[in-house]
Design goal:
Layout lengths: L2 H24 L6 H24 L3 H14 L4 H18 L2
Amino acid sequence: MTSTLWIIFWGAILTYLTRVGGHLVLSRFDRVHPVEAGLNAVPAAVLTTLVAPAAVQAGPAELVALAVAAIVSLRAGLLTMFLVGAVVLVAGRQFVA
């Protein structure tokens, strides 16, 4: 195998082991409220690290899609927000850019 495939393979294995290890460690303890709140905030933090760089380097289509997704998120769920934002982004890139 090439070195790229080895990197992908071991990265996937280590990611899986990290997730399983975290689950095994946390399943042995009673979760207190601050820890539970922190664990529930992790997906939002990861999503922010993905959205923030794109928002800084965004063009007009991306900024409109981000604004629409933010507005939709006030009324709808995460999946709806994602789908509406993706549709607006694709349409914006087709017609604006």
